[in-house]
# Entry
Amino acid sequence: MKVFLCGGGSGDQTVEAYKRLNEVIDRSKPCLYIPLAMEQEKYADCYEWIRGELKNIDIPYIEMVKSTDELAAKDLNDFGLIFIGGGNTFKLLSELKKSGAFEKIKEYLNSEGVVFGGSAGAIIFGKDLDACRLDDINEVNLSETNGFDILNGASILCHYTNRTPQKDEESKQYLLELSKHRKAIALPEEVTFFVNDENIEVIGNKPYYFFENGVIDVIG
# Structure
């Protein structure tokens, strides 16, 4: 399993994470970009954004899906990298589960595939979506919110410490309460976790925040 969990950064915030990404992908295969967390009318802008983000990654080209039907038709093993972008996390998880891609991504990772998730694309790899409920509205009425759960039962929040002090304090108090029954990890935009099988490599120059049993631990 090789999964990059990015706290939501871009550009200069993610340079080191992309360097590490470039070291582990199969460069002979293209990238599949999944922007389904965003509204469909923004997909053209999303494609321009991802081209800029991955300009230094050695891949033949980037292919973007625009619907769950397109995603369902893909053989994920044709791709050396799957990049899952940000937006509304509930919409994203709903789309992945509705298309069958959720299970296909699990199989892809078990076949040595590489996934890079940013913001919503990272949050879905936690235990569930509980940590982001203050940030995202569940407009799709998703009831089954369990994620891939690759961080030993911890849920994930992104963009932490990159918002207003008031918003971060609100998130802090919410996660402290949540952590009484569910571990949570809050990632700044400048931090990326590289989950490489049983190992976790932390990439970035800022601390991250671990919440458990009603206590916050600042790490880094």
